[in-house]
Amino acid sequence: MRYLATAVLAAAVLAGCSTAAPEPSASPSAIAATCPETLVEPDPVEHGLGPFEEATGTPSLPEPEAAWWCTYSALDTATPDPDGGVAYGWRLQGEPATIAADDLAAVSDLLDGLEIPDPMRACTADLGPRHLLVLASGSARIGVAIDAFGCHDVRLTDDPWSVAPGETTDPDLVTGVLSPPDGMLAALNGLVAP
Fold first, then answer.
1. DSSP-assigned states of every residue in 44-110
2. Mind listing the pLDDT tens digit for each residue in 113-125?
3. Count of Cβ atoms closer than 10 Å to residue 78 Cβ
4. Integer Cα distance of 154 and 112 in angstroms
5. Dist CA 192 CA 119 (whole Å)
6. Which sign, positive or negative, has the C-alpha torsion 129, 90, 47, 53?
7. At what angle do helices 184-192 and 104-111 cross, to 10 degrees?
8. H or E stretch at 32
9. How far is residue 14's CA from residue 46's CA, in Å, rounded to a whole number?
10. Are 149 and 48 in contact (CB under 8 A)?
11. Which of 25, 85, 130, 186 could covalently link to 14 via disulfide, CB atoms 3.0 to 4.6 Å apart?
12. Model's pTM, two decimal places?
């Protein structure tokens, strides 16, 4: 069932995106301080989404001292995907949003609910933006990439500027795909809504 859902999602990615690269609107200085302009391309390409394998455990995330919320739109990288079709990249859209200090505890509570996905779960075959929650803890910057489509897969990176989501090298984090707790995406969007 998981492989069917993966195939359907991959087909949606390949068929459902415009090949025109959207224009970024955030200033370079804001991007440099908070979120990368583009998400790092995974290796292997995996249609630009990152690994599909379920994580083998849950992460140990630090309490954030600051956090930012960024939204990314799909763009055609013109890079052939090993499975056929084209791999897509992800470019920042709009201004990064700062999560208020009073809301950081709520963010931690939501992240504590990340779990290993059910391999038999069914996912929708749609495509939408991706979000990146960047957590600052000391000098570390941890990225939590969340798909706003399909099963709302979550992938972690210990450095959003150089390590693709789902490919972390930090032993306190995990590689592969995690599932969010119910309502996580809506709750995070609500924290930054005007």
1. S-GGGT---SBPSS---PPPPSEEEEEEEEEEEEEEEPTTSSEEEEEEEEEEEEEPPGGGHHHHHHH
2. 999 998 888 787 7
3. 10
4. 13
5. 32
6. negative
7. 160
8. helix 28-33
9. 11
10. no
11. 85
12. 0.80
Amino acid at 109: D
Which positions ≥6 away from 167 have C-beta within 8 Å? 42, 43, 50, 51, 157, 175
Select from 155, 175, 160, 93 the least CA-distant residue to 129: 93
Task: Read off the DSSP letter of residue 177.
Answer: B
Chain length of the chain: 194
Tokens standing for 104? 């950081």
Task: From residue 141, give the alpha-carbon distance in Å to each of 32, 112, 149.
Answer: 12, 18, 25
